[in-house]
Known about the structure:
Elements: E1 2-7, H1 13-22, E2 26-31, H2 42-45, E3 55-57, E4 63-64, H3 66-77, H4 91-117, H5 125-147, H6 158-167, H7 182-192, H8 195-204
Parallel strand pairs: 1-2
Antiparallel strand pairs: 1-3, 3-4
Amino acid sequence: MLTVHHLGKSQSERVVWLCEELGLSYELVRYTRDPITVLAPPELKALHPLGSAPLITDGGPTLAESGAIVEYILAKYGAGKLAVAPDQPEFADYLHWFHFANGTLQLAMSRCFYLRRLNLPPDNPVLVAAEGRLERAFRYVDERLSAVPYFAGPAFTAADIMMVFSLTTMRLFLPVPLAPYPAILSYLQRIGGREGYRRATEKGDPGFAPMLT
């Protein structure tokens, strides 16, 4: 049995969402953040040296890293769904946005999150550079979604599952107003209409309203 260890309001929402979109049978084990530190609870440390989520077990070693988990589930259970094959014209776009999620966008947001916590003056050159990089990333995303309905092109794929966390839940930790990015806002309304997304949110983070605006 595939078991998903899910930390509320974290990147592990991707894994729950993927399982729901694929209609998989899986066991969901939920964890909540420490109310003071906002970090993962010690129970996760007992499962993996990183002590964070997402984690899955599937009859073998515990697997960490949301991107690796998504690829694993697609390869083992996806039956070609939500991925783009190498012989398809959207393959390069699919790979780009799948990895842009953590390789560029989430990294830029995390960098700004930590820098803002240092209470640096607004003209600090490191902060200015980081904020500029984040703005360029969001503008790039908005331009992409102005041209196509989903990140890989005309169809919803796992690249969307990877990207949405940074556009939504991550803004709990790093507020980014979306008013300057109308294509992102329109896209999030499409995402919010997906049954799989709604089921994943209700199961993984009951009572939490997705940040779609």
